[in-house]
Amino acid sequence: MQIYIEYGTGTKIKNLSTIRTEQCYAPVFFDGPVDLEKLAGYLTYIGPDGAAHASFDPQAWEDYQTEQRELEAREQAQKMLDDLSYKTVLDTATDEQALIMRPLYPVWQADQVYKKGAYLQYGGELYRVLQDHTSQTDWTPDKAVSLYVNVADPQDPYPPFKKPTGAHDAYSKGDGITFEEKHYRSKIDGNVHSPAEYPAGWEIVE
Question: Rounded distance, CA 68 to CA 179, Å?
Fold first, then answer.
C-alpha cells in the first residue's frame, strides 16, 4: 500500500497522508497494515525494487516510548522547579516587593491555616500574617490587627490598652498593647484584664 509521508529524523516517519500534500510528499510502500497509534515505530528503507518502503520496528517503538517517558519526566521536573521557584519568590519577598506582586497572592478565606509571614489579599489590599492561626469569619484582616498587618498602611502593633467589655473584643494570645508607657504582649487567649490586674496574662516586650 503506497502512502505519502513526511520524514522525521533519519528513517523515521513524522506524518502521513493517503494523498500527496505539501508536508507529506514522499511516496512509501508500507509492508502491511498501518497502526497509526504506533507511527513512531515505523522505519523506512529502500527495498529491492528501488522504492521506499516502511515497516514496523519493535525496537524503534520501544525506544520512542522510553524517550517519551524521559521527556515527560523532564517536563514534570521543570514544572516542579518552576512552581517551587515561583513559591519561593512569593514567600521570601520583602514588603516592598510583595506590594508590587500583590495580584499574585491568594485572597483571604475563612477556615484556612495561615502561617506567620505569609502574604494575602483582602478587599484589594495586601496583608501580612503576624502569627500562626486558623482564619475565622469574624477575624478579617481589616479588623484583626493582632493577626494581620496592612502592608501598605502598617498599623501600630502596640496600641493603647482598652479594657475589653467581653469575649468579642478580648485580647488574643500574641496581641500587643501599650500600658503605662510599656509594651506588652498577651500570653493567653480571651484576655480581658490589664497587665496590672493580671500580670501572668502579659509579658513585657523590650
Answer: 67
Residues 118-146 have pLDDT tens digits of: 999 999 999 999 899 999 998 899 888 88
pLDDT digits (tens, 9 = 90+) for 28-47: 999 988 999 999 999 999 99
Q: Where are the alpha helices (DSSP H) in 55-200?
A: 58-91, 95-100
Beta carbons of 49 and 22 less than 8 angstroms apart? no
d(CA 204, CA 206): 6
Which 3 state secondary structure label does DSSP give 92? coil
Decide: pTM greater than 0.70: no
Partners of 191 in the β-ladder: 171
C-alpha grid cell for residue 99? 506590594
Radius of gyration, CA atoms only, the chain: 34
**In contact, 171 and 203? CB cutoff 8 Å:** no
> Do 173 and 145 touch, CB atoms closer than 8 A?
no
Give the other-Cβ count within 10 Å of 25's Cβ.
12
Rounded CA-CA distance 14/51 in Å is 19
